[in-house]
Amino acid sequence: MPARNPTGFDMAQFKAAASPSSAFAKRDPWVRNEAWRYYGPFSRFNRFKGLFPGFGIATVAFAAYCTYEHFFLTDDHHHGDNHGEGHH
């Protein structure tokens, strides 16, 4: 016979109560009160959706500017042309 635990703590009973399939977990009165944390506006997706506000708009604006610059703005300075002529 194993020695009696002086604290009265029974690890087997604790594991049984902590498992999600236990009868105690199914009768937990706080489950209903905690459920709101994981649904609706507090779901994982909705919590991280607003992590970088304005990032989508900024990305589209930057891509539009890069496209405009590539197709419509020209470099009239011609840096590097004729550097060999007249320069010693």
Order of helices and strands: HHHHH
| Largest sheet features | none
Total count of strands: 0
Share in helix: 40-55%
Low-confidence stretches: none
Protein structure class: mainly alpha
Helix and strand topology:
Layout (H helix, E strand, L loop, with lengths): L10 H8 L4 H4 L4 H4 L9 H6 L5 H18 L16
List keywords for this structure.
45% helix, 0% strand, single chain, 5 helices, 88 residues, mainly alpha
Task: Tell me about this structure.
There is one protein chain. This protein is an all-alpha fold. The protein has a domain at 30-73. 45% of the residues lie in helices and 0% in strands. The longest helix has 18 residues, at 55-72. The chain is elongated, with a radius of gyration of 34 Å. The termini are far apart.
How would you briefly describe this protein structure?
By secondary structure, this protein is mostly helical. It has a domain of 44 residues. Helix content is 45%, strand content 0%.
